[in-house]
Design brief:
By secondary structure, this protein is α/β, with parallel strands linked by helices. It is built from eight helices and nine strands. The chain has helices at residues 12-23, 54-68, 103-130, 150-170, 188-195, 207-218, 223-226, 233-240, and strands spanning 3-6, 27-32, 45-48, 73-76, 86-87, 90-91, 134-138, 176-181, 230-232. The strands form two sheets. Strands 3-2-1-4-7-8-9 form a seven-stranded parallel β-sheet, with helices on both faces. The chain has a two-stranded antiparallel sheet with strand order 5-6. Helix 6 (207-218) crosses helix 8 (233-240). 47% of the residues are buried.
């Protein structure tokens, strides 16, 4: 049974990825600050973890290594950037950068990019010894173009750069790293914003689709050739004939 660890799996994309990988036969470890109350299948192992606290992150990976003895996929989905999108009745997420609340920088950069770096380092120590594994960083095309929030674009550009440079150093060790660019994903926060008329969900994707395409990518013998790339969920789903629900 292949082993996966999904960070930020209490809700949103991370929760969907964890469920999808579980349904595909993975032994899944799921982390998050509120993971104990998350709506997840009973077979998924929950590890309460705040990934802004390095000792908690280290303990989570130590548990995986001790219990499973391997790690085939790490999905970095820990992210706080969609918290408090609407404040005092106002959609502040789309405000110009000079009016952005500073908590959003911490949520996107510290709880997002930095957490992905620390988790990837922990995963690499397990994967490199086995000369196999995939690190998938959840990102977005805001890395390449403006999508309504300066901090958001900075965080996603940093994530894709992290992916590319990690892939360069991991390549001689048989480990791959990619960024996954979802479309509009129907997370709890996005659905809440849409209910207020702030977002249009036309053409949106389920959180579970992200996990299905990651699994398909991990099973592709040509994965090493794609290491370091930012890959679109929609394109991967079409390529691997993965259906959404």
């Amino acid at each position: 049974m292949p082993v996966a660890l999904v960070t930020g799996a209490s809700r949103g994309v991370g929760r969907g990825v964890a469920i999808a990988l579980h349904d595909l036969g993975y032994r899944v470890y799921a982390t998050g600050r509120t993971i104990d109350s998350a709506n997840l299948p009973a077979a998924i192992t929950r590890i309460a973890c705040d990934h802004t606290r390095d000792p908690e992150t280290a303990a989570a990976f130590e548990r995986v290594a001790n219990e499973a003895g391997a790690l085939d996929i790490l999905v970095n989905s820990a992210w706080g950037g969609y918290e408090r999108m609407v404040e005092n009745g106002l959609f502040t997420w789309g405000a110009p950068f000079w009016d952005q609340p500073l908590h959003r920088w911490t949520s996107m950069i510290d709880a997002g990019v930095r957490a992905a770096f620390v988790c990837s380092a922990q995963a690499a120590r397990i994967m490199v010894t086995r000369r196999s594994g995939l690190i998938a960083n959840i990102s977005f095309h805001a890395a390449r173009e403006y999508v309504g929030n300066v901090i958001y674009g900075v965080s996603k550009a940093a994530t894709d750069k992290l992916t590319g440079d990690m892939a360069h150093e991991l390549r001689p060790h048989g480990v791959s790293a990619v960024s996954i660019h979802p479309g509009m994903v129907r997370t709890e926060a996005v659905l809440a914003a849409a209910s207020g008329g702030w977002l249009d969900l036309t053409g949106s994707q389920s959180p579970e689709l992200q996990g299905r395409v990651i699994a398909a990518l991990a099973a592709d013998p040509n994965l090493p050739a794609r290491s370091g790339q930012a890959l679109s969920t929609a394109a991967l789903a079409q390529e691997y004939n993965v259906q959404d629900s």
